[in-house]
Structure prediction request, 667 residues.
Amino acid sequence: MSTKATNILVPVISVILGLIVGAIIMLVSGYNPIDGYAALWNGIFGDLYTIGETIRQITPYLLAGLAVAFAFRSGLFNIGVEGQLIVGWFAAAYVGVAVELPMIIHLPLAILAAAAAGAIWGFIPGLLKAKFHVHEVIVTIMMNYIALHTTNALIKTVSGGGDRTESIFASASLRSEFLENLTEFSCLHFGIVIALVMVGVMWFILEKTTLGFELKAVGFNHNASQYAGMNVNKNIILAMVISGAFAGLGGAMEALGTFEYVSSKAGFTGIGFDGIAVALLGMNTPLGVIFGATLFGSLKYGALNMPNAAGIPLEIVEIVIAVIIFFVASGYIIRLFLLRAAKKKEAK
Amino acid sequence: MSFLEVLYFIVPSAIFYAAPLILVAIGGVFSERSGVINIGLEGLMVIGAFVGILFNLLFADTFGNATPWLSLIAAMVAALLLSLVHAVASISFRADQTVSGVAINLLAIALSLYLVKKIFGKGQTDFITERFTRYDFPVLSDIPFIGPMFFTKIYNTSFLAIIIAIIAWFVIYKTPFGLRLRSVGEHPMAADTMGINVNRMRYIAVMISGALAGIGGAIYAQTISGDFGHATINGQGFMALAAMIFGKWHPLGAMGAALFFGLAQALSIASSSIPIIQDIPNVFLLILPYVLTIFALAGFIGRANAPKANGIPYIKGQR
Prediction:
């Protein structure tokens, strides 16, 4: 079997295994898995409204997935997408409430602010990795908590002691009456367009530019890249900055589209961590990220229907997602299994 | 409040907050010293907290006063079993250890909440009735200065944490087992050549880390929160990970770092009633542990170097 075929088969098999494990858990704990998955299906595709909401849910997942995947391609593991997304969320909402400008300036400004905030949050671990060889995983985890506590404190200051900001001015909003009417008044907003454009941007950077070539080269082997005359340190920092900017944009989707404000958080949103799953499932390619984000975004939104329609706690979907990640990460064993199966076939 | 009063108030609560962190950080030391990154500490703590509370609620009538201690054992077993999942993925299946750890974290919180909703029909458990209780240590609490600081209103679990840290130091640095553990984390091929079963050592190390993280989670739940919900363990595992790094992968260092982070937590909660500190915005105390960890890693506060083979699956015959 060709490597390309196995590369596609591993995620597909993982998803199937994840759903099977989910079904077993439902069965063991006394629920009917068929009812459960039917409720999930209806929660995703039930009517135009749920489809609109599902697409809205997919939007930040696309950007979080791009952020993780982009860093991965340069050999970096950005666990800090969560924190970069939170600071982006805050920055966009802040620009949204602080000033009132014509839409043509205000909206791009708010979006850029989010990207810049995320980029700065990615720059710090990038710099530390490049200059001090500090492993980015730990630094980004720490940056997540710093982001959480800092934005909470800032929200308190901005709102004069409250725990959420005012709603943003309409001139900074991504909401669209057209899309809302199309989907029976769901919260679907123009963010999905931005997210899809960003998928194209990532593809273009990686496949069509010198920068992308260098980033991938550094990801494959940084010693060889150094020897070939590339500036490895610069590329590490750039990769983290761009990755952080994608994550920040994910925050802007929540700030300018879905919620139109930012509130202080007791814990993480989870979107950033799910971005890891999205990227892994998508094998870190732009097209794969669309696949991963669609799957996980749909599962997440569809799960909301499960307690009402089937009486099953929605956490079952989180369990399924965790199991999928587990199997994708353990791709070695699936590949081994496929290889043996293929050999057996040949022997016959 | 006078300075001494502040000290008598802050030091016991620092130790109180540090106890779970110490245990979980020591667990991390075992795992990473053997060469397996364990980002899943947070999830292992979650399972520990959940099983601890569940066991306590179910058996409080049967076991009475002994319930919290027996809950620790139940939590230990549960987290040990979950850590086996991480071990199988990262040692036998050669998975990316960080990714597998992320999966453990997601799985633990999802599974616990799923079961909480199934069993209790709501988002969090009831409050436990049998908790660990504070007491004044006889005789020692009468010593001036030291008594009120270290032996008044204390939990036995704090002693447990400190004793386990010392035992861990002895095991890792003074026994053949510890030498083997460290050798598979630094240079697994050399260890293999000397007849040490690398994968077996790593399995044992990950299971120890699971057991300790489970105890840590159950202590946190039974001393600090009193029930279990989605936000019971909220970053404690990652803070323990930070303590492990700040302590430079050394059991006693990790304990020191955990005590320091416990102090930061105690200060951030009690800051409004303490002079000088009440002028510092709370957020600085909240982010202090994380900022310090980054500084430690960057080499501003001594250099923190991970074990050499940390995060690399061992494949026989591969150079």
Summary: Chain B has a mean pLDDT of 88. DSSP finds twelve helices and no strands in chain B. Chain B touches chain A through 48 residues (CB under 8 Å).
